[in-house]
Request: fold
Amino acid sequence: MTQDELFKVLVAHCKEYGFIFPSSEIYDGLAAVYDYGQMGVELKNNIKSYWWNAMTRLNENIVGIDSCIFMHPKIWEASGHVAAFNDPLIDNKDSKKRYRADVLIEEYLGKIEEKINKEVAKGKKKFGENFDEEQFRATNPNVLRELAKYNEVHNRYVAAENANDLAEYKQIILDCGIVCPISGTCNWTDVRQFNLMFSTSMGAASEGANTIYLRPETAQGIFVNYLNVQKTGRMKLPFGIAQIGKAFRNEIVARQFIFRMREFEQMEMQFFIKPGTELDWFKQWKENRMKWHVNLGMGAENYRFHDHEKLAHYANAATDVEFRFPFGFKELEGIHSRTNFDLGNHQKYSGKKIQYFDPESGESYVPYVIETSIGVDRMFLAVLSNSYKEEVLESGETRVVLSIPAPIAPVKAAVMPLVKNNEELTNLAQSIMNDLKYDFNCQYDEKDSIGKRYRRQDAIGTPYCITVDHESLEDHCVTVRDRDTMQQERIPIAELRSLIDKKVNLNNLLRNL
Ligand code: GAP
Reply:
């Protein structure tokens, strides 16, 4: 199965098993908006718990808040979003389709990179063990030709980005012969800036309604509460404020399922520090966040950092944690050194003094900030795409299994009586379920053959299936089947809780951090 096919299958699986539904589906859906179903919401909540507990419980100097989506419109002027939260858009006059000019160029560069990698793979195959990749890249004429093309376009692109030169974006697209994938033509409009914030009005229009924005990031809710939290929590620098909440962006190109949505959720933490210490803290948070990701057990090789060449208007250092999605390595989380840009500007725009009195140095200053910001939905997609597997069993049958890291799996255990028309068995199974449900999210399932029930649980990623059979009535033992190994083990009912707990307790994951 190609990665493209895998992605389509994954999207269908998400719908079939109640993870994600297209929003407003009975009205034919709404572009780039999705609803989470009965399984999806459990997985999403578990991802959020892993993040929230790692931030606020494991760090005595990080506290959480929950600020509103609606905020004073001046906040978005102070933050720079009104002036600068734009994407460069371009339309194809023939297909009438709209694209992000920067994405068209990046995709073009990605294709050149792919060509180079294919050439290297061919070399590897040809020369086997004697292959020297560095030398091959430095001397192979095909690689050198593609690399020269890449460098030329890349340099022009970075310069255009830094200068905000929209005409140059269009010229690069024309010079590279980038065509619209729908019409196949180069008939492009000029490139224009498009602000990504959604606006609405507050109050009755006739009473002089105020235009307000749906927040495009949760971070500003933290900045404008900095003083409240610092004072009421008697926080000393360095300290952090964490928040999980919805954000909204009118994305021009909203594709790739929940990777880029118009309504999504962020988990953001702003870490307030003394000016001058930001690059040390930036390094520490990079390490800290990578540890959090790798600790989930989805393969260290599937993550990498991508340092930004062009920095956002508020940053003096920035990196992305990229994850290997089915469509390649893409941003999962952003880590930014935001200087004192936000607090400084809120001080200026609000007229309120936002300073920290440092008892050690006796000085007052506007703190600097390191931000970590990850999309819940993107994390969800990372987990699901990494977990989805189609395995051919010895019997020749295929099983679809989601090997979701057990502590964040939506359902932790399924309790099943071997047959449903035996009251003694169903009573015992239900009493086990009633006992376990206080500690774990469990499902009771008595329909269909045991084989079919196993398949259903594999498809939603349930780590354990517990079968109650006739012998259980005598020996007070049950058969426990492990999702990943498919091994079955007979264990006393009294030991069920500790067996499940060992594998699924989130605290075990947190303890490794
Ligand atoms: N406060 C900084 C900030 O918002 P960002 O890089 O624009 O930075 C942070 O966004 C994270 O939010 C991204 O790494 C991504 O995981 C998530 N994100 C951003 N836009 C998104 C979208 N349209 N759909 C889903 N997730 C998105």
User: Anything to note?
Assistant: The mean pLDDT is 94.
